[in-house]
Design goal:
CATH architecture: 3-Layer(aba) Sandwich
Structural class: alpha/beta
CATH topology: Rossmann fold
CATH class: Alpha Beta
Largest sheet: 5 strands, parallel
Radius of gyration: 15 Å
Number of domains: 1
Strand order of the largest sheet: 2-3-1-4-5
Helix content: 55-70%
């Protein structure tokens, strides 16, 4: 069930467009947006890659879960989540308080979009980014599928096009639920 009162959480693999789409969708839904990775970096004063290097993935995921809870509690309308947020039980429980949208992207498209930025993404580091992407997706896909109330492919589309489509789909679902 989709509700105009619940936050919209964007999930999906790196390169799906979550950070680019969140503020555009929030604008269309007359609300605000929060990017969890950007918030964590700002509060920690260090980039995600460095946080991973210093504390490991588990420590970063704890920061991510806390940031998600704070965004929900503040009433943020659209939340851009990190790609791996679904791997933590506590984060999945929090995501169930949201209308979750899975932004899908193929490994090849994600690798193209990320380009040189892939070096800043510790879990994608290595010679074959596409293979690493596929490996990570296999471990996350069942969670994406279970949590998502909507799925939207982002391949070959601009963030504005996707935000327009999602705003229409979310509004239609809210109207349908109101009947």
């Amino acid at each position: 069930m989709i509700s105009a009162m619940r936050p919209v959480a964007l999930i999906g693999m790196p390169g799906a467009g979550k950070s680019a789409i969140a503020p555009l969708l929030a604008e269309r839904l007359a609300g605000d947006a929060d990017d969890l990775d950007a918030r964590i970096e700002a509060e920690a004063g260090r980039p995600v890659a460095r946080l991973f290097a210093e504390g490991g993935e588990a420590a970063f995921r704890a920061l991510e879960t806390r940031a998600l809870e704070q965004a929900i509690d503040r009433g943020v309308r659209v939340i851009a989540c990190g790609g791996g947020i679904v791997t933590v039980d506590a984060s999945r429980a929090l995501l169930r308080r949201c209308d979750v949208v899975w932004l899908e992207v193929t490994p090849a498209e994600a690798a193209r979009r990320l380009g040189d930025d892939v070096a800043a993404r510790p879990l994608l580091a290595g010679d074959d980014v596409t293979a690493r992407f596929r490996f990570l997706l296999r471990g996350r896909e069942e969670h994406y599928r279970a949590l998502a109330v909507l799925r939207e492919s982002t391949d070959g589309r601009t963030p504005d096009e996707i935000a327009d489509t999602l705003a229409r789909r979310l509004s239609a679902a809210v109207r349908k639920e109101a009947r």
